[in-house]
Amino acid sequence: MSNRLFNFCAGPAALPEAVLKQAQAELLDWQGKGLSVMEMSHRSEEFTQVAETAEQDLRDLLGVPDNYKVLFLQGGASQQFAQIPLNFMAEGGSADYIDTGIWSAKAIEEAQRFGHVNVAASAKGYDYFAIPGQNEWQLSDDAAYVHYTPNETIGGLEYGWIPEVGDKPLIADVSSTILSRPLEVSKFGMLYAGAQKNIGPSGLVVVIVREDLLGNARASCPTMLDYSVAAKNGSMYNTPPTFGWYLAGLIFKWVKEQGGLEAMERLNQTKQRTLYKAIDSSELYSNPINPVDRSWMNIPFRLADDRLDKPFLAGAEERGLLNLKGHRSVGGMRASIYNAVGQDAVDALVAYMAEFERQRG
Ligand code: PMP
């Protein structure tokens, strides 16, 4: 019997139990080699197999075209906020960014250290409750690229569409939405994702970048931050986060076993519908996001009276529903329902929400 509870954490987030069990079973002795993955040389035949299989499985899942490199890097998604301008924006250059909330704002703030950022559209005018349509975007001619955040993990906003930006490279922070459903990689110049939601443990960041964009980093770009160096060295210019890479590989296999991204999409579609329906049909709970811009992965909701937050959270914890407290910057509640959080978890949450409302009603 497992005593694992339902974990709605935004990240590091729940991982599939089957994957954790496999990692546990292999921890001391990986495939009869007499040592753990953590203890092997990253250049060994064994780890090379782990690394290559993980990359191939991710390529298969997303249908990554051959002219894209897949990199397994360090420093989380936040380091990408600097790495992107250092690699793609010339000294004195500029780039277009779309502001839809806290994560896109962090990307903007960091990019401003390296050049001019044109905020081509902002959700501020909608109190960050809706995504500005592309007809409102003011893209600039001299932008080196266009950056946006397809899913705002804190605000709970998600694009149901991919922007059209002509021949400008489109760069997307898919940290909290990657692998939740199929994605047309060829529409992007680059995608990046911190691992600790749908991919694996924190610290690792996966970058998928079109090859023709590589090789233009600024002269001042640190070697470790130059994508072309990482690409040339198979993400092993230095010692990569081997255990995280291995765990990501186990997750990719697990997603394949679930039926791939089409199957994940069906499961996630039902999960989010269940939860939004519970919120929308209640008198006590509310979610302010424009319905077509609602996130599938991160669902913030408020109780009609803030004073109920504490008892709600205490009752949730008693029932084994963990980490429902909203981000400190917005308050309220947030349920993150990534791939490893099943329909059973969502059903348990919805049942508790109804019970709590009845008791207060
Ligand atoms: N972007 C998004 C959309 C995120 O959700 C997060 C983490 N929650 C980050 C960036 C930052 O990731 P990291 O902590 O790995 O740097």
From TrEMBL:
The answer, when asked if Lipid biosynthesis is one of the entry's keywords, is no
Cite the cofactor comment: Binds 1 pyridoxal phosphate per subunit.
One MF annotation (Gene Ontology) recorded for this entry:
pyridoxal phosphate binding
Where this protein primarily resides, as one coarse class? cytoplasm
Pathway note: Amino-acid biosynthesis; L-serine biosynthesis; L-serine from 3-phospho-D-glycerate: step 2/3; Cofactor biosynthesis; pyridoxine 5'-phosphate biosynthesis; pyridoxine 5'-phosphate from D-erythrose 4-phosphate: step 3/5
Catalysed reactions listed for this entry:
O-phospho-L-serine + 2-oxoglutarate = 3-phosphooxypyruvate + L-glutamate; 4-(phosphooxy)-L-threonine + 2-oxoglutarate = (R)-3-hydroxy-2-oxo-4-phosphooxybutanoate + L-glutamate
Cellular component aspect of the GO annotation:
cytoplasm
Q: Which InterPro entries match?
A: Aminotrans_V_dom (IPR000192), Pser_aminoTfrase (IPR022278), PyrdxlP-dep_Trfase (IPR015424), PyrdxlP-dep_Trfase_major (IPR015421), PyrdxlP-dep_Trfase_small (IPR015422)
Q: Which residues bind L-glutamate?
A: 43
Per UniProt, pyridoxal 5'-phosphate binds at: 77-78, 103, 153, 173, 196, 238-239
Q: What does the sequence similarity comment in the record state about its family?
A: Belongs to the class-V pyridoxal-phosphate-dependent aminotransferase family. SerC subfamily.
**Subunit:** Homodimer.
Q: What does this protein do?
A: Catalyzes the reversible conversion of 3-phosphohydroxypyruvate to phosphoserine and of 3-hydroxy-2-oxo-4-phosphonooxybutanoate to phosphohydroxythreonine.
Quote the PANTHER family the UniProt record gives.
Answer: PHOSPHOSERINE AMINOTRANSFERASE
The protein, known as:
Phosphoserine aminotransferase
| Lineage, opening ranks | Bacteria, Pseudomonadati, Pseudomonadota, Gammaproteobacteria, Pseudomonadales
